[in-house]
Amino acid sequence: MIVIVDERELVKDGYHSLFGREGVASAGFGSSDFGEWVSTAADDDLKAVRAFLIGECSSEFVSPRKIRDRTSAPVIALSDQHSLENTLRLFESGVDDVIRKPVHIREILARISAISRRVQEDKPYSEFGAMRIFMDGRDLEIDGEPLPLPRRERRILEFLASNAGRRVTKTQVFNAIYGIFDEEVEENVVESHISKLRKKLREKLGYDPIDSKRFLGYRLVT
């Protein structure tokens, strides 16, 4: 999930729509609401956040360094001002990157992936047996052959891969794929997506790479 912080409803709604077209969940906040939320949100909720996009907002409530105290997710500033002074000021505030607007939504996602790779490892993918799982929206590869998946199933697989070695709950998967504040979709939809994903992977691999434990959640195995 991507969290957008901006005082302008039009900006938040616009990014929410654009991310939705890419199959990426997002949530928008104003400054004061965000400041309260990031200070009190449960750790599981923060783990579902892929990145924070900071636009026009009050520095009194939105501090990149305070965000960093709670999560290692990238913090990216969206800048309307094309000046060196403003860019340097934003970097000094503690953000990981500054993106000048206008910008295509796919460039934002690519920058988020690049920052995450630098934090974790240099490779733009994770390997699990015969599977090569990319984190930038590219199709899964099995034994070098691409396997196109629906966007939700691909995002679930990416989320499982990004949590290699850890078991994630159905709630964590739902929050990462649909967003913490999506009340129009039932959490049980995750089970349907994962069931379809497991069937496709089983047919290609000859085994089920998603280990499921009741009440404990899911993890990838080789």
From TrEMBL:
Q: Which InterPro entries match?
A: CheY-like_superfamily, OmpR/PhoB-type_DNA-bd, Sig_transdc_resp-reg_C-effctor, Sig_transdc_resp-reg_receiver, WalR-like, WH-like_DNA-bd_sf
- Tell me where on the tree of life, at the top rank, the source sits: Bacteria
Which residues fall under the DNA-binding region feature? 123-222
- One GO BP annotation here? regulation of DNA-templated transcription
Record bears the keyword Calcium: no
The protein's matches in PROSITE patterns, at most eight in alphabetical order, are given as: OMPR_PHOB, RESPONSE_REGULATORY
Q: What residues does the OmpR/PhoB-type domain cover?
A: 123-222
Organism this protein belongs to: Neoaquamicrobium microcysteis
Keywords per UniProt:
DNA-binding, Transcription, Transcription regulation
- A molecular function (GO) term: phosphorelay response regulator activity
Q: What is this protein called?
A: Response regulator transcription factor
Q: What Gene Ontology cellular component terms go with this record?
A: cytosol; protein-DNA complex
Mitochondrion: present as a keyword of the record?
no
Task: Show the coiled coil region(s).
Answer: none
